[in-house]
Write a structure and sequence with these properties.
Length: 707
């Protein structure tokens, strides 16, 4: 071989170096609704076909940090994938996937498996960045909009909209809105480039964040507006399909009515409903006068609509709540504009949704801030936020972790002056007792209560420490000690409400790879990818000794709620987790804490109404109140798990069948048969007055009707 001259060799090396440096890099900025950057995704696509991704997202003092690498086959699906990092709550992420020919295999800290595959298939990691979605967008476009998933399932993609956007430096491009279905319990919406090989351009999560290519941030508002319009149409169609209007006076016959005031199951009754309200409750078999329709409950239990007292509602989860018998959700923190849209859409019947009672979210500015509601720096800003919430009809205020402790007492006093209840987390640097002294009416989450006995003024409770410290230390707490007993006595004296969200905090003691306890009874009913998610641990648990310590701590937290109830401290049933199903699990946890099933149901009905200030219209099956009614198979006053057997729900003048909702969401129904609406013979003309009063006036020579 001839030797290459040095100058030529240098030129060749420079050319290859330039080519390597030209490997494409795309950066996405993740921006909260208030414009604050909360994360980023940096994607490097190398010349050798290897894609590398660095992903970080932090909000509320927590969030995932991931490093990914993957390669793609000619059809756009992954032949190899690897991710390492930490999950939202700090658990270890370490997952790999490979496909060689028809053999696919995967392994993570949660699961391990393999499968023989023919043709293209998309692997779904348990933890990943948005770049995995970008690859799926390209592959689905090449495959005609549908591909099998690994380990199981099918992913579909369709185009909803298209719009032109402009960058900060004057460039323009056309992007398209895509809806993917087949993962989770609702559609996923992504903005993508157009052309033969579309890829991810932006992800808009209204009320949370927008992730968009750097330089194109200004397009976020336009994309959000167009996406909302497209989603609106889908939601209206879903509501029209699953909400069945009651035609007129309807009688629910032969139902055993739960008395939420006495926490007992009453005799069989006939309950009359008209225009969304209960008009009469009569002994079963009483003569029917003028009803146009009936529902034969056939001896089923009739509950007042259940309350979830700790939701963060979205527009797509209403069906999950209603199918579980939840007819009212207290929202404990949301984007304010998004909440107004949800309230408007629900009132107009455009959303399949429970009724929502909003609590105004109030946070302080810090590196750990949550970014919903109002984020303030001083008392004047706090008062302005309270004024806004008052004027918009919010009955309650929720204060969060970074709220300035120096102005807490004045803020609570002003909220009370404006007529708001006040609750929340305990601001950093304070204990629950300090919040009580400042005037709190309620405390959210069992960990916030337990921290009262564990924190020092320097404990940083805005980080994961607010979960780790109770997990480590509650196991050793003496509940009979003077300090604990004094605190319980104070809660009772002040009638401070506790919203423990026990089912949600079961994650504190979940070992990665094992089923999260609250979801074990429903797992087999869920789509495959949702079932997989129930096995993913969220806490970083180092060893078996730590696991046993965390499990003991969680068991004592459950026990503590039982002690509170027996001491006369008010309890409400909230979730802060998967809509609907977690409320049912929360009631089971209350029973595990020592409450009777009927007492747990009372908390989810009477107490829910009492502490949302809606007792005048909700919380019991009483004439004059809203007809929020839940028909249940079995007897949940004896076996609380029967609360999952919801056969039918009436709310806001609609009849809703959980069977239909479940089937629409890919869930295996929990009841085999549902009571049907049956038309009754009319007792008068079927033709209502036409309103042609002018003709009547003509023949009556202008005379007015008189009695």
């Amino acid at each position: 071989m001839k030797r290459v001259p040095a100058v030529l060799a240098l030129a060749i090396a420079s050319a290859f170096g330039a080519q390597a440096q030209a490997a494409q890099t795309t950066k996405y900025l993740i921006l909260a609704e208030n414009g604050k950057q909360t994360g980023e995704q940096v994607v490097e696509r190398g010349d050798d076909g290897l894609t590398k991704v660095r992903f970080i997202y932090k909000d509320n003092g927590r969030g995932p940090e991931l490093s990914e690498e993957f390669r793609l086959a000619a059809d756009g699906t992954m032949t190899s994938y690897a991710v390492k990092g930490s999950s939202t709550f700090g658990s270890v992420v370490d997952e790999r996937f490979t496909r060689q020919g028809s053999q696919a295999s995967w392994k993570s800290t949660t699961e391990q498996g393999s499968k023989s595959v023919d043709g293209a298939a998309l692997y779904v990691p348990l933890n990943s960045s948005f770049e995995v979605t970008s690859a799926s967008i390209t592959a689905l476009a090449a495959a005609g909009g549908q591909l099998p998933l690994l380990p199981s399932g099918t992913l579909s993609q369709r185009k909803l909209d298209e719009v032109q956007v402009a960058s900060a430096d004057g460039k323009t491009q056309t992007v398209q809105l895509l809806a993917q279905t087949g993962l989770g319990l609702s559609p996923q919406f992504y903005w993508a480039t157009t052309g033969d090989k579309p890829r991810l351009f932006a992800v808009v999560v209204p009320g949370a964040f927008t992730a968009v290519e750097e330089g194109w941030q200004a397009s976020g508002k336009l994309l959000a507006e167009r996406q909302q319009k497209a989603e609106d149409q889908m939601l209206v169609e879903l509501a029209a399909k699953l909400q069945h209007p009651l035609p007129g006076l309807t009688v629910v016959r032969n139902a055993r009515v739960f008395d939420s005031e006495k926490a007992v199951l009453g005799a069989a009754s006939d309950v009359y409903v008209l225009r969304g309200r209960i008009t009469a409750v009569l002994p079963a078999g009483s003569p029917v006068r003028g009803a146009v329709a009936e529902i034969d409950a056939a001896g089923r239990v009739l509950l007042p609509g259940l309350f979830d007292m700790h939701g963060h509602v979205g527009r797509w989860e209403g069906g999950l709540n209603l199918a579980a018998g939840v007819t009212t959700v207290r929202d404990m923190g949301n984007d304010n504009a998004k909440m107004q849209q949800i309230l408007d859409g629900t009132a107009a019947g455009r959303l399949l949704s429970p009724q929502v009672v909003p609590a105004g979210f109030l946070e302080g500015e810090s590196p750990y801030s949550a970014n919903s509601g109002f984020v303030i720096k001083n008392l004047e800003q706090a008062k302005n936020a309270i004024d806004w919430y008052t004027e918009h009809g919010y009955p309650q205020l929720k204060i969060y972790n970074s709220f300035p402790k120096a102005i807490l007492k004045e803020t609570v006093a002003y909220a009370h002056q404006r007529g708001l209840r006040v609750s929340g987390h305990i601001p950093a640097g304070l204990r629950a007792q300090d919040a009580l002294d400042a005037g709190y009416d309620e405390i959210q989450h069992i960990n916030q209560v337990m921290l009262n006995f564990l924190v020092t003024p320097t404990t940083e409770t805005r980080t994961l420490e607010r979960f780790i410290l109770p997990s480590e230390k509650v196991a050793g707490l003496d509940f009979d000690s003077a300090a604990v007993q004094k605190f319980i006595a104070t809660l009772k004296k002040k009638q401070t409400v506790i919203d423990p969200t026990l089912a949600t905090f079961a994650f504190l003691k979940q070992k990665d790879g094992e089923m999260n306890e609250p979801f074990a009874p429903i797992a087999k009913h869920m789509p495959p990818d949702v079932q997989r998610g129930f096995h993913v641990g969220t806490m970083k648990i180092a060893d078996e000794a730590t696991l046993q310590r965390y499990r003991k701590s969680y068991a004592k937290m459950v026990e503590f709620v039982g002690r509170l109830h027996r001491a006369g401290v008010p309890i409400v049933a909230g979730t802060d987790e998967l809509a609907g199903f977690t409320l049912q699990a929360e009631l089971e946890m209350l029973v595990k804490a020592g409450l009777k099933p009927a007492e747990a149901l009372q908390i989810a009905t009477r107490n829910g109404a009492r502490y949302t200030r809606t007792s005048h219209e909700r919380g019991s099956v009483t004439p004059g109140k809203l007809a929020d009614l839940v028909l249940v198979d079995g007897d949940p006053t004896q076996h609380i798990g029967d609360v999952r057997k919801v056969a039918a729900v009436i709310t806001r003048g609609y009849l809703i069948y959980p069977q239909e909702v479940d089937q629409a969401l890919g869930i295996q129904p929990f009841v085999a048969a549902a009571p049907q609406l049956k038309a009754l013979e009319a007792v008068s003309s079927n033709i209502a007055a036409s309103g042609n009063e002018a003709a009547l006036q003509r023949i009556s020579a202008g005379a007015r009707q008189r009695d």
